[in-house]
Amino acid sequence: MSHPLKRPDFDLIAGWMKPGETVLDLGCGEGELLAMLAERGIRGWGIERDPGLVLAAVENGINVIQSDLEAGLAGFEDDAFDHVVLSRTLQTMRHTQQILAEMLRVGREAVVSFPNFAYWKNRLAVLEGRMPVSEDLPYQWYDTPNLRFFTLLDFESLCAEMGLVIRERQVLDEKGASVAEEPNFLGSLAVYRLGRG
Amino acid sequence: MTTSRSVGPVVPQRVAFDSPIALACGMSLPQWELVYETYGTLNAARSNAILICHALSGHHHVAGYYADNPKNLGWWDNMIGPGKPIDTNRFFVVGVNNLGGCHGSTGPASINPATGEPWGADFPIVTVPDWVRAQAKLADHLGIEQWAAVVGGSLGGMQALQWTIDLPGRVRHALVIAAAPKLTAENIAFNDVARQAILTDPDFHGGHFYRHGTRPTRGLRLARMLGHITYLSDDQMAEKFGRKKRLGAGSYGFGVEFEIESYLRYQGDKFAGFFDANTYLLMTKALDYFDPAAPYGDDLAAALSRAQAKFLVISFSTDWRFSPARSREIVNALVKERKDVAYVEITSRHGHDSFLMDDPYYHAVVAGYLNRVAT
């Protein structure tokens, strides 16, 4: 696989799944996560919109389904999967609540990871008058695919509003190391394990 | 480029079966023959064979050309050959003309042994499951216990799907392209108009036109013109023809005036010149009857639960005959049954006919999938 980004959240996500379980990976790209999970005995399918990534996923032997997440997950049955993963993609989506609800319709559990806009370096950048650019927010304001900028606190309040249960939360710094204290300040990437209320 | 990667000159082969084949309609054919072509080399383990299933007007001449007619290229020559997506350096590829066809396999123009005359309208209706069983007999004849892949577009894709349900142990991969799990009322409606064009042609003679020395070319031409419209996309027609008129065309009359009229009439004439009207009727009926979920309580997922194959499903954005949504029905059923499946919806301007086009992305997807298929 040729993906240049290191994905420290993948190990975390894999740790939440057991061999024999099934997973749907939303925005699966070339299928890096699904390939890693397959090695651990977890069967997966992925959804990807980008034609180049879909081709790469096919070449990698991934169960990739070309589709646009903004259209929701219609066609997948309720409870079809043990886990549904949305890795570093929620911030790029317009239909935020719809996709979260859909994930927990088709999956027993949802895993969501996203860049924390309240990470201290991001706060500092804004204090200095510039939009943040970092390991987890690696774009300029004019070319970013990100549509939503939110924090751990923002996300958790939305979960409460939607009645989603946070089963586990892991927060990582820019180097991928786990952050225990002051996560909304010291954490660059948040990974949540959600269940139905 | 096409010629340098061609399988080269090919020779059709023929196999005769002496044991009757029972058909879904209740009739059986006592003796029957299939014509087929093969490309590439069957390996010692007989594990590298790919079956190509043809669509409504297709046949066994899938790739290469005939030595005495180098212009007669196989209908999927851009897809199949050495170094092409279906790579004959790795795979042994088999093309076959289906029962009921008009390119050499037993069909309506063949002699009915009971009468000594062509079958004509008395030829039994054949279905997709019938074709699968006949193709399996060809596989037996060739010593192929299990296909590495069964591949087809449109009606051919439906055969690939049927293979995975009816003979799950005999197909490792299915490539189901521009297909649907069954026809809609609109699909059947188009087919019936096409059939009516043929059935009401005075030269049809109730399907026994052979003995009258006629051919219902007017009906067949209309059927093909109608069909052809459904193979194209509105965008593509607008771009290719728009409202352009033929040079020197008259006006305020009913002659050929617009370019699209000229094109369709040409396509209709060409087709009516060689295709058998009875075969056209049979092929459209096979399409209409195709419904692999029916024996499983109309539950496609239940039907596909039997499948052991892995799937590549491909659709095309401007295909309105069998739209991407129809392919998604297949994909959704496969995912529900936890089958391995990749699904690609290819952006193309060419409508249903896209599956025959030489599109680099489409071909890369097929090549990328088949590269991982073990031989």
Record keyword descriptors for this entry:
heterodimer, A: 197 residues, alpha/beta, Rossmann fold, seven-stranded mixed sheet, 7 helices, 30% helix, 23% strand, B: 375 residues, eight-stranded mixed sheet, two-stranded antiparallel sheet, 11 helices, 14 strands, 33% helix, globular
Which regions of chain A have little confidence, pLDDT < 50, spanning 5+ residues?
none
Question: What is the helical fraction of chain A, as a range of percent?
Answer: 25-40%
Give the end-to-end Cα distance of chain A, rounded to a whole number of Å.
37 Å
Order of helices and strands of chain A: HEHEHEEHEHHEHE
Name the structural class of chain B.
alpha/beta
Structural class of chain A: alpha/beta
In the sheet with the most strands of chain B, the strands line up as: 1-4-8-5-11-12-13-14
Please identify the top-level CATH class of chain A.
Alpha Beta
Treating each run of at least 4 consecutive H or I residues as one helix, how many helices of chain A? Answer: 7
User: What count of domains describes the coordinates of chain A?
Assistant: 1
Count helical runs of chain B: 11
Q: Which range does the strand content of chain A fall in?
A: 15-25%
Number of strands of chain B: 14
Question: What gyration radius of chain B follows from the Cα positions, in whole Å?
Answer: 20 Å
| CATH structural fold name of chain A | Rossmann fold
Main sheet of chain A: which strands, in order across?
A: 3-2-1-4-5-7-6
The most extensive interface, with participating residues per chain, is: A-B, 20 and 22 residues
